[in-house]
Design brief:
The chain has about 425 residues and is mainly alpha-helical. The chain is built from 15 helices and 9 strands. A hairpin with a 4-residue loop joins strand 8 and strand 9.
Length: about 425
Amino acid sequence: MKVDNSINNTDDIVSDCELDKKTLENSIQKFVAWLEKHGYASYDPYDIWGIPYSLWARKLYYKKSLLGLPFIAPIIFIDTFLPGLRRFLVKKERFATADAQILLAFINLYRYYNDDKYLEKAKALGEEILSYSIPGYSGYCWGYPFDWQNSGALWRKNTPYITATPYCFEAYLALYDCTSDKKYLDIAESIARFVADDLNETPTGPDASAGSYSPIDNGKVINASAYRAMVLIEASERFKREAYREKGLRNVNFILQSQNSDDSWPYEIVENRTTFIDHFHTCFVLKNLYKLNKHLGEERIKSAIKKGFDYYTTSLFNSDGTPRTFAIKPRFQIVTDDLYNYAEAITLCSLLKKELSQAGRMIDGLVSKLIMGYQLPDGYFVTKVYHSGIKTKFPFLRWSQAQLVYCLTNILVLFKTI
């Protein structure tokens, strides 16, 4: 796929890709064939950080910084140079974030090819995702099957997260829209109850509040509030729940109030500390604002998206058009290219292409760089590239194989609209 910077009409972008539609189809089919052989259980980049030694070392690192560095170094070494060693430390697991986005990719393929086999694959995944939802809350919810030590606390495995659960919400709504089977709508309504009732709210103003990352924290992570707001606004429309709309609007107000003077969003709001600004979390905020504003239609949200996208394109891409991971780094980084950034950039641009011409113009270059530069002969994609030039070719479905096939199918379905 060639980049044509002279194109100004976003609809022409997809048309210009028409000659390479087969390249896109072949890329997706190669991945699907690999997935069928690989299966849906997967290792994860963060699973070895959940073993007892890693939890201890990471806690020490957060407390003592340089003193803890020698103790986390072995885990960093394994993850960078010998990722396959995790086979002896952890086992493969199912991840809702991955399964739900693969389900959505199959829905896209069903819509594109009008082939029931993809709908059947999506329905089967829907049953499997439901089987490992986390009990004990107001509705269905999902998290990660490993312990995680962050800078503030230890979060045990199967703590439900707002960053995982919304993908399942979207997946079941997509299944309902394709089948009209009310059981999927009921599942989505159950998920909305969790999002509305089990996550904590921290007031940040008279009409604004941050939504928590999980039921056990009171953080002010921007993308967490964006995911929550998206679910609540969508659920308020689907299920006629005004209370959901009110909660969602409070989260929206927090997000808009948190936009910096340069139009960026920090990862979170923490007093007396500057937090990082990065690529895919910025995408999370922008894509969720776009999705919820399809229902609200508010100019202030549209303006925030445009300004945020302008910052995103100028500060989170390199001069050659490749995604840059950080505008403001949290600490020393050893990764130069993270394929999660490509996935989220392509999905975001597919959403915004009609409203923002620049988003449409970016699609061709991003997709061609992804397929030509990072898809491996087996069909899956490189995960990360390090400063040394070393590429992680060990496949992790949650990071970011699922996101990559989903983003490519999002582009493929654009061909059905022209």
